[in-house]
Amino acid sequence: MRREIPTAIAFFVGIICIIQFFIPHRPFGTLVDVFSDWFGIVAAFAIWLGALNLLKVSLERSFSKKKTHDRWYGLVVAASFFLIFIIGMFMSGGDQFQVPGSRFDYLYVNIYTPLSSTMFALLAFFVASASYRAFRARSWEATLLLIAAFFVMLGRAPIGDQLTGFMPEGYRLSEVANWIMTYPQVAGQRAIMIGIALGVASASLRLILGLERSYLGGE
Q: 3-state class of 152 per DSSP?
């Protein structure tokens, strides 16, 4: 019963959510609203479970007997968690913690936002490394990707118009880059989105029909 009941609930909820797209009337529309409310409740508990699990893993890593180099990172995570939780819940005016000027807002603007900017800045180096590996002209597809990236990067930079400013309209690098981003890029993006939609639909059907039970901890 530990597996049959969750599978039956997933099947019932999934079927109701599909039917309401075709019959948006009572009782299906009302049931979907109830399911949405329950989804919000379950998601709130899941967020707390995730935060507590992160805290548990960080503390276990910090106070484990194994002397690892990342044990201090766990302490930083745990200390940051308690600091934000205490200030946000008890020292920022109740439910007004998002008001500009509160202690929580001060930590968010002056600590969290700079750290996020630093993380995204570091990602630029990883993107550059991945681009170097991907743009090696080892095949026809890689060569085409390399040529397109060359035109787009030069077209987006001011030096592109300086190099091709003497050319007639429609042949300058900025216009070529705009054409690539408007037509070939959009066509490829739509194909990828269609593939993602088909994958989501197939995964949803597997969950509804009980063929996929990984969320239950099984095979």
A: helix
Q: Which two tokens stand for residue 180?
A: 């690539």
Token pair, residue 175, equals 């216009």
Nearest CA to 75 out of 86, 64, 89 is that of: 64
The Cα–Cα gap between 71 and 92 comes to 31
Query: How sure is the predictor about 139, in pLDDT bands with cuts at 50, 70 and 90?
Result: confident
What is the spatial distance between Cα 155 and Cα 167, in angstroms, rounded to a whole number? Answer: 13
Cβ neighbours of residue 204 closer than 8 Å, sequence gap 6 or more: 14
- The rounded Cα 171 to chain-centroid distance in angstroms is 37
Residue 78 and residue 206: Cα distance in Å, rounded? 38
Considering only the C-alpha atoms of the chain, give the largest distance between any 2 of them, rounded to a whole number of Å. Answer: 75
Rg, Å, the chain Cα set: 26
Helix (H) or strand (E) run with residue 154 in it = helix 140-156
Instruction: Report residue 39 as tokens.
Output: 């989804």
Mention every residue, 6+ apart, whose C-beta is less than 8 A from residue 98.
104, 105
pLDDT for residue 106 is more than 80: yes
Q: Model's pTM, two decimal places?
A: 0.60
Q: Nearest to residue 204, comparing CAs of 9, 15, 5?
A: 15
CA distance 16 to 104: 41
- C-beta separation of 121 from 110 below 8 A: no
What is the pLDDT confidence band of residue 126, given thresholds at 50, 70 and 90? confident
What is the overall mean pLDDT for the chain? 83
